Amino acid sequence: MCIGTPMKIVSDGEPRPWGEGRGVRQQLDVMLIGEQPKGTWVLAFQGSAVRVITADEAVKTNDALDALEAVLAGATNLDAYFTDLIDRDHTLPAHTEEVKP
């Protein structure tokens, strides 16, 4: 399984810009997404920015990664990590509905 992490572009750099996220600071290869201005959030994997994301996506992704760390540490109640899903209507997408003959 591959897990990307949200990183914010914090400075322009030659040949690569610097990104920070989840306590890590590293230069990012932006060949897949092109040059991005400082302040842009990206999803990074193994030193490469693979796509631009919104600040909201960065928060939700970090919450999910925090939940994964909590599970690995033995936590069982994960509601605090997924507050955006707690009161959501639990319906399946239309394409998953049973097809009747």
Please, could you describe this protein's structure?
- Strands 3-2-1-4-5 form a 5-stranded antiparallel β-sheet, with helices on one face.
- The protein has 101 residues and is α+β, with helices and mostly antiparallel strands.
- It has one domain (5-77): SH3 type barrels, CATH 2.30.30.140.
- The protein has helices spanning 55-72, 83-86; strands at residues 5-11, 18-21, 24-27, 41-45, 48-53.
- Strand 4 and strand 5 form a beta hairpin.
- The chain has 2 helices and 5 strands; from the N terminus they run βββββαα.
- Helix content is 22%, strand content 26%.
Q: What is the mean predicted local confidence, pLDDT? A: 90
Spatially, the strands of the biggest sheet line up as: 3-2-1-4-5
Q: Uncertain segments of ≥5 residues (pLDDT<50)?
A: none
Helical content stands at 10-25%
In the CATH hierarchy, the third-tier topology is known as SH3 type barrels
User: Mind telling me the C-alpha Rg?
Assistant: 17 Å
Number of domains: 1
Known CATH architecture? Roll
- Strand fraction: 25-35%
Tell me the structural class.
alpha+beta
Largest sheet: 5 strands, antiparallel
Q: Identify the CATH class.
A: Mainly Beta
Number of helices: 2
Termini separation (Å)? 38 Å
β-strand number:
5
Q: H/E element string?
A: EEEEEHH
What would the principal axes of the Cα set say about the shape?
extended
Summarize the structure.
With 101 residues, the protein is α+β, with helices and mostly antiparallel strands.
Topology:
Blueprint: E1 5-11, E2 18-21, E3 24-27, E4 41-45, E5 48-53, H1 55-72, H2 83-86
Antiparallel strand pairs: 1-2, 1-4, 2-3, 4-5
